[in-house]
Amino acid sequence: QVQLVESGGGLVQAGGSLRLSCAASGSIFRLDVMGWFRQAPGKQRELVALMNRSGRIDYSDSVKGRFTVSIANTQNIVDLQMNSLKLEDTAAYYCYAKTGRPYWGQGTQVTVSS
C-alpha cells in the first residue's frame, strides 16, 4: 500500500508560480512511476507530468517549458514547479504513483485568476 498526500495548492494570478509537493509513504521502495495529473471542472482527468524509475519524464504539451517535475533523493517526495501559470491551468491536481497498481492522492486545488 502507498499513501499520497499533496500540499501547495492555492490561488495565484496569471503569470505567477506555485509549487506542489506530494509525500509518499508505505511501500515506496516499489514505486515505478510518480507524477501529477489534473482535472478541471467538466473535463476528464489528464496527464501533467510523469517520471519513471530510470528518470524519464513525460510532460503534457500544454505545460512543457512551464512546469517541472522532480523527485527528491529519498524517492518519497515528488514536486511540481509551475511557472507562467495560465487561466487554463485551473484544476484539481492529483499526485499519482504506480507499483503495479495506481495510487492517487486526495487532490489539491490550483486556481489561476486574471
Task: Please characterize this protein's 3D structure.
The model has no long low-confidence stretch (mean pLDDT 93). Helices cover 0% and strands 56% of the residues. Strands 2, 4, 5, 6, 9, 10 and 11 form a seven-stranded mixed beta sheet that branches. Strand 5 and strand 6 form a beta hairpin. It is globular, with a radius of gyration of 13 Å. By secondary structure, it is mainly β.
Mean pLDDT: 93
Task: Classify the helix fraction into a percent range.
Answer: under 10%
Task: Describe the main β-sheet briefly.
Answer: 7 strands, mixed
State the secondary-structure class: mainly beta
Total of DSSP H or I helical runs spanning 4+ residues: 0
Separation of the first and last Cα atoms = 40 Å
**SSE pattern:** EEEEEEEEEEE
Q: What's the shape? A: globular
Radius of gyration: 13 Å
* Counted beta strands: 11
How large a portion of the residues is in β-strands, by DSSP E? over 45%
Poorly predicted runs of 5 or more residues = none
What's this entry about, in short?
With about 110 residues, the protein is an all-beta fold.
